[in-house]
Every structure is written in C-alpha cells, then in structure tokens.
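> tool_call: predict_assembly(chains=two)
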Amino acid sequence: MGLSRSSDGTLSRVPPVFELTGIQKRFGSVQALDGADFTLRPGEIHALLGENGAGKSTLMHIAYGLVRSDTGDVRVDGVVRRISSPRQARELGIGMVHQHFTSVPALTVAENIALAAGWAVVPNQLRDRTRRLSERLGLPLDPDQRAGRLSVALKQRLEIVKALAGDARILLLDEPTAVLAPAEAEELLRVVRVFTEAGGSAVLITHKLDEVLRAAERVTVLRQGTVTYAGTVAGQTVESLTSAMIGPESNRSSFTSLQPAAPRATAKRELIRLQSLELSRESGYGIAIRPAALVIGSGEIVGIAAVEGNGQRELLRAVAGRIVRLRGRLEVAQPVAFIPEDRTSEGLVPELDLTENVALGLGLDAPWIRRGWIRWGEGRARTADLLQEFGITASGPRARAVSLSGGNQQKLIVARELSRGPAVIVAENPTRGLDVVAASAIHARLRSAAAAGAAVLFHSSDLDEVLALAERVIVVARGVIAEVPPQASRATIGAMMLGGDG
Amino acid sequence: MARLSRLAWAVAAVVLGLGVLAAGLEAMGYGAAPALGALWSGAFGSWYAFTSTTLVRAVPLILIGLGIAIAFRGGALNIGAEGQFYAGAIAATWVALHAGERPAPVAIIAVLLAAALAGVLWVALPVWLKLRFGVIEVISTLLLVFVAELLVSLMVLGPLQERGHIYPQSDAIPDSARLPLIAGTRLHAGFLLALALGAALWFVFSRTWWGFKLRAVGLGPRAAEVSGRIDSQRVGATALFLSGAMAGLAGGVEVSGVSYALYPNLSPGYGFTAIAVALLAGLHPAGVVITGILFGALEAGAGAMQREAGVPATAVYVVEAVIIIVALLATAPKGGWSGARVMRRKRPVASRAS
C-alpha cells in the first residue's frame, strides 16, 4: 500500500465530497439513527464501524437512496440533495456494493453490468465496453462468463465494477470482505485504494478492526445510532476503537434488571463434549468452525458472543443435531431441545394450528403419537396444558400459529421444546424482537431448566443478553472458539469478538 | 368453520360456472334451458346414465385426483398425471395380453400392480431430476406427458398392435383380466376401489404421522426440517411416487374396466381435469370423491348435450375453467399480489442489521 496518510490538518481544508448531517431514522419502536453526522473527503478511504444494529447499513442506505431519513441533510459537493432512489444516487456519482451479491446468476458478466449501468444491450458492443471498463478500473473480468459461475472473489469484483460502471466518484462498500478469504480481502482493499488514488472516495463498512487500522485514513464509529468517534485512524488502537463501539462498562441495558445465575461449584455431569470438531459452512463452502474442544456440564448456561457469520450458527446447529459434522467428535446427551432463530420459517409452520405445531416439534417423542398414529384429542389436551403452564395467550389449541403475537409464538416454541424434558437446550437469539416482559419470561424458563439439570447453550447477537443470562461466556470469532475468563470486561469480550488479535 | 367456507366456495364455483355456461349458450343463440336440461339428464337422468356414464368417468378422476391430493399436500406439484396414466395403461395392456389367461383375481391383481408400478417409474425421472439437479417437477412431469402419448402410439403401431396390423390399437384383453361389472350397468369394480382408496387416504391424512408430515412439509418445508427433523426431500419424493402410482393405477383400471384395449386418446384429459378435481376438493379425499363425480357428470352430460341440443361438447370446458379459477381464488394466499408490498415493508427492517 503505497499511500502515505495525509495528516488531518491538510485534508480538513479540502471541502467534503459527501456529507450527511443530523440524520435521524426510526423503524417502528427502534431509533436506528439518532442525529448521526458523516463526512467523506475526496481521495480517502473512510471506515464506518459499529456493532450489529448500530445503524451503519441504515446510514449508507440513506446515502444511496434506499431508505429515506426522517430528518437531516445530504450534501453532495456542498449542495443539499434529496436522494430518493438508487438511480438518483448513481446519477450523482454514488455507487454501492451490497452485503449480498446482487448479480443475476444466469446472465453474463457483461449483461449484469449493462443491467446495473443502464446500457443498451447490443451484444458485441457490450463485450468490448465491459472489457474496456474493467481494464480501465484494473479489475479484469471475462465479459462472457455467467455470473453464477464466478468464484466468490470474482463475484465481488463484478459487484464493484457494476458500482463503478456509471462513473461513480463515491463508492459505498457494505462489509465487502465478510465473504472473502484473507488474501482475497487484501486484494479487494488494494483495488479500493487504486480507486481512491485516482481521486475517488470510498466508505468501508466493516467489523474488522485490523482492516480499519491498515486500510482507512479516517473512521466514524456508530453506537446505537449516534456517532461516538469521528476522526483520523492515526493514533487509534484496537482498544480505543472497541470501547467507542461497545461503550463504557456501565452500559444501559434492557437486561440489567435480571440477576445472573450464581455459578455452581458442584461436580457436573458432562452433557456436551466436542473434541477437535470441525464444521463446514452451511453454504457448503469453507470452514465454519476450526478444530474445537468444549465441554459443557449439567446445570450450566453457556452464552456464545459472536459477530454474525463467524461460525456460531453452525456450532449451535451441530450440537442440536441439525447439521452433520465434518470431522472430529461430538457427543451430546439426548433429548435435545432446539429453539431456532427464525420462529416463523424454522420454528413454526404459521398455517398449522398450535397442536399441530407441537406435534411437528415433538414428533414421535410425543406420548400421544405412537407407532405412526396420532391421537389428536390427547394432543389438544396436552397443548392446552402447555398454553396454560407457559402463559401463552391464544384462543386455544386449535388456533393457527399465525394468529399469535411474536412473543406468544416464541413462548410456544420454548414450551414445546422444554416439554420433552431435554438434557441439552440449544437456542439461537431466543428473545429476538420480544419486549422485556416476554424476554425475561423466556430467560426465567431457561434458568429453571438449567437449575433442573439441563445444559443450556445459546447465542444472542445482543451482548447484553449474553452477559445477563450466561454464567459462562465463550466467543466464536472466525471459526475459533475461545473461553472468556470470568470477570472479563465488555471491552475485552468485544475485542475477542472482533478478532482484534489480527 | 374453515371447512364450511371451503364448501361454500366449491358450491359458488359450480353455480358460477353453470351460470357462465348458460349465459354463453344464450349469447351464441342456443337455448340455455334445453341444453342444460340435456346436460342434467345425460348425467343424472336415469340410474343407467348415472352409473354407466357419470360414475364410469368419475373413476379415473377420483383415482388420479387422490394421487394429486397426496402430491400437492406435500408441496410436490405433479402436473403430469396424464403421462403416468398412459404409462399405467401401457403396462396394464401388456401384462393383460401376456399373462391374462391366468385365473381372474390373479390376472386382475397383476394388471393393476403393473399399472401402478409403471406410474411410479414414469415419475421416477422427475423425482431424480428434482433431487439431483433441483429441476422443477412442474416442468418435468408435464413434458413427460408428451413422451407417454408418443409411447402409446409407438406401442399400438408396434409391439402391442392388434393381430391384423391394421388399426392403431391393441387386441382386446382376455376376459380374465377384466374388472367385474356391477349388475346391469357398465360400472366396474374400479369404482369400489376408488372409494376404498379415498377412505384409506382420509384416514392416513387425518390420523397418521406420515399424513401429518406430508402436510407440514407442504406448508413449511424449512420448519419441517429444522423443528421436525423431517427429511423434506424424502417426503416430497415419496409423495410424487405415490401420486404416480395412483395415476398409473387409474390407467390400468381404465383398460381393465372400460376400454379393454389400448389406443391413443384413451383419456380425454383425465390427468389434467383431475388437478381441478383435487383443488376444488381442497385436497381432501372425501371432497375428491364428490368433485370427481361432479366432473364425471359434467363430461357425461356434455355428450348428451351435444346429441340432444346440438351444443358442442367442449362447451362444458367453460364450466370446468370457471370452477378452476374460483377454486384457485379460494386457495390463494391472503393479500393476493402482495409480493411487492411485503418487500417494501421488509427492507428497512433488514437494513437495520448492519
């Protein structure tokens, strides 16, 4: 990387190419952005940092015209603009590379670029034009290759070429390196640097602190919708950035009212045991969990702190018996209760009634389903009992699951899973989207199941929830499992989650 | 309650269909009253008309319709039952001609088993394509209909052609391979078989774990896999095989009970009409028996309408088409064209997770 960082002093005299001021945005009851400012200067790589849900993507979606802000101004080259569509953004010279690929797999590279840039589709011209463009950008691509056949790195390259096809001067990159191997990520950052050296400006949304420190000139850190740091990268460290992201120890939390369970000192029966376990990614490509060892005993509540996509999902699903292991040993006491993340597509069938949803989860384990015969009358009676026992508000065991509120749907799943008397309970974001009352009811259920001798392994993308519910915390970062020492600070855990060790 | 509204929809569909037919007949200058009268008497006018035309035509519709109910419940869209029907008819004819001289029950059972097996084989390729390459069964089963029809032509001009080698059809199958008739009518024992299978399926769907699994996979394949630990692909494949077996069986029953020989155009589109039969019945086995008889009546009455009122028999397809449209409206997810609206609602929520 040949560019030496200009000092902040010289840069500040240059007028910004792009400016967002006082941006507010509310989604329902969530204040996603609360008066955020963001300034992009010509020729810089500007990192945008923050935890899940801090508002990074929302801010960039406002900049690209995908989301309208409630209040605040957007200035391009010092002029206030209303950007109400991606097309308008492109006309103003703003290009965006999304978190997920947006190419049409069945179309060729050239056709995908034409689609994004609005070129007329004339086959021969298209090929030459694509070749010229990709060579000018220093991002060679075969125009005739089908997008679906490209490797992940080349797909990413196509996304960038598409974003720059309309002569963009401002490039917004939403976690572009999340899907790439380290060498590919390095290559991508090199490409972005070529772009900024030629006079363009880039915003890099990322979770990876080492990337920020190496590649960016300036950084803006968001926490819960507000900017906690904006300035040069020079002088910042992994620790200082982490504390800007995660906040001070005395963080306001919706879970602080709950008492963490006291660790038990008694000898525990081992219920989950991993030995050099390796898991592949759900997509089938790449490794999700690198050789790992872990033992969880009876009565333990173990929380996994991790940033999206670091392997925790595969780990939980392997323990729950939902995916097969690649290598190594995995012993889990049966029966296992599993509370999946997405309640309406994975936890329940909304069109089925409550009894049927209980039947779905319990299957042949239900006492009222024997040798392939279902006694629905008995099932409805048992389901009615569960509704009462878990305080689920529903018109009865024949109500369809879709008629329940999110909190009651979640309670139904928890009720069903706990009713099998599990030795092990695996939960993914068990209280996502629930209000505090419903969330604490579910926490209480998990605690009492652990007190009765079950091992609980759960993940929450909300670090506060992990700290409130778990008596033992592990971190999964880039497929590596690490035990968090007792009494570790939020900042330490945050740094571990972000793989601050490089 | 849900079942009652289903019934209301079904009745509304039939009434509306007949209404559109009547209006069309008036507009075209036919008298609606005599034409509909002929339709009624052709279908229900006498015991003989009811049993020997309406019920005879209802049998393949019920058998195939039950199979389609199995497939559709499991989320497998078998559109090519017509092809599986012909595969069954070919196999039944072959077995009847080569092994039909055995005692009647043995011959009949062999014929029907061969027919069901042929239906299974005919759907095996779509199942394999689906599991191996994700090819949509809607397309592959439908395309194999044309292959099956050509195979029938090939058979009746080649290995299965009648002894004189003049007509494109097979020899008549021996008496021992023919289904017994119900006294004084042309209705054969296949009707009883259809009723028995309908009752059995009703029981399977409402009382067994497998029947429940099938519905769960059809309505929520992800949840069935993740929460129910059900192998959705396997359930879907089994559903397709069973529906192929039912359509093949229908082909065998038609040869063994009605035509006694194989020839092209053996089916007036039973395999397609049966889709409407199953949908109108809300995929419920008892409903399939009733709607199967209804559609059998329409087809039987169409012939009478043509003979007595001079109205082309194809006019009843108007009724069938209206019924299908109304049945689809009744089963459409709430909100109809809500795809775009859902996306607009979801986008900001998705963008919150950065």
